[in-house]
Every structure is written in structure tokens, then in C-alpha cells.
Design a protein that fits this description.
It is a single chain. Helix content is 21%, strand content 31%. The chain is built from five helices and eleven strands, in the order βββαβββββαβαββαα. The mean pLDDT is 89. By secondary structure, the protein is an alpha/beta fold. The protein has a domain of 144 residues: P-loop containing nucleotide triphosphate hydrolases (Rossmann fold). The N and C termini lie far apart (44 Å).
Length: 210
């Protein structure tokens, strides 16, 4: 089976648990995710601060190890790939910089080589949309170019202004909502905002463009 025969991304039975306390350990936060995306898409990601969005992105790119579960990019377990080659599969941009921090539990030479030389999954974590000089148009064209080149693009935005919602409605093929460590998916914006949790999160912005 070749790379082309595999789903672009599989998040299989993923959990990440953070605990507090030295002697009496207790669970402070749990993220759970189980989904697959089998073809190029632009996926909008939303959710309250602290809900687990960045943690999810970190695990997809291999910079944060899950408590349980597996993340596969084009069939390859991201956490079994050499550290310096993981961004050939999935790359995480947090605002204006690339995130690359790895817990090196296994020597890199004992891990697999990446099966591609160019990132397949691109995760944009709250990019800064400058409203001046056509910058938004440039960014949207960049996302569309990645999609046209058969990449999977995640666009995580915490909407503060109406134009943030318009961008997401215009560019995204589907949506993911992360809330209290739980993940739900929606095939379009209308389905997304039909959820009470999403409507409450967005407030009056839920009606932008309707």
C-alpha cells in the first residue's frame, strides 16, 4: 500500500491526560480525540481558550506525546519518525513561528525516516491576520494553494471580530470544535453553529453572514 492509498490523517483513540500533585496525583485535564481525514481539506478549528486546541496540534505534529492512542500521517506513526523529519509530515505554526520541541526519549537514529520531503499536514494556530495592505487575501490564497497541492490544512482561529468568522466561512471545507477536551466535527458552518456550545462560544458572531 502506497502513501496515496492511506488517509492523510488518522487520530486513533487519542488521549492526553495532565495530572497535578506529587503524592496524591489527580487528573487536571483530559483531551480525547478519535477521527480521520482521508483527503485534502481546509479544516477550521475553534474552541475556548484552554480547551485543548494547541495540545491537539502538538500531538499531531509529534512534539507532544499522547497518554494513549496513535497519530498517523499518510499511514506513518508521527511519534515513530525521526525528530528532525517529523515536520516533513506535519508542521505546526503558532502565530508567527514554527513549533518544534520534542521529548527525545529514543535516539533519533533508531526511529523511522519520514516518507515524504514536504509537509502533508499544515496546522496554523491562531495566525495573525493583518487587515492592512491585502495581507488577508495573501494568506487565504496561501491556504488555497496548499489545498490545491493536496495538503491538509488546519486553521485555528479564536474569533474576536466579524471578519474572523467571515474568513473561516469563506475558506474552510469543514470544522472542528474543541471544548473541555472533547472534539466535535461539522461539515459546514451552519451545522457548526447549530450546536448550543458553539453558539454560546461565538455569541453574536454566530450570525455573521447568515
Amino acid at each position: 500500500m502506497t502513501m496515496a492509498d492511506q488517509p492523510i490523517l488518522v487520530v486513533d483513540g487519542l488521549t492526553k491526560v495532565y495530572s497535578t500533585g506529587l503524592l496524591n496525583r489527580r487528573e487536571a485535564f483530559r483531551l480525547e480525540a478519535d477521527f480521520a481525514i482521508d483527503r485534502p481539506r481546509i479544516v477550521g478549528v475553534m474552541g475556548p481558550n484552554g480547551s485543548g486546541k494547541t495540545t491537539l496540534f502538538e500531538m499531531i505534529t509529534g512534539s507532544n506525546r499522547p497518554t494513549s492512542g496513535v497519530i498517523r500521517c499518510c499511514g506513518q506513526n508521527i511519534h515513530a519518525v525521526r525528530y528532525r523529519e517529523r515536520d516533513r509530515l506535519a508542521i505546526h505554526y503558532h502565530q508567527s513561528y514554527q513549533v518544534r520541541h520534542f521529548a527525545r526519549r529514543v535516539p533519533s537514529f533508531m526511529l523511522e525516516r519520514a516518507i515524504t520531503d514536504y509537509p502533508i499536514v499544515h496546522l496554523f494556530d491562531e495566525p495573525q491576520f493583518n487587515t492592512q495592505d491585502g495581507y488577508i487575501g495573501f494568506m487565504l490564497e496561501f491556504f488555497r494553494t496548499l489545498y490545491a497541492r493536496e495538503r491538509l490544512v488546519f486553521l485555528c482561529v479564536h474569533p474576536h471580530e466579524a471578519y474572523h468568522v467571515r474568513i473561516m466561512r469563506e475558506i474552510c471545507h469543514e470544522f472542528v470544535f474543541v471544548n473541555r477536551g472533547k472534539i466535535s466535527r461539522a461539515p459546514d458552518f451552519e451545522t457548526l453553529v447549530a450546536s448550543d456550545a458553539v453558539s454560546q462560544y461565538l455569541g453574536k458572531l454566530a450570525k455573521v453572514g447568515t
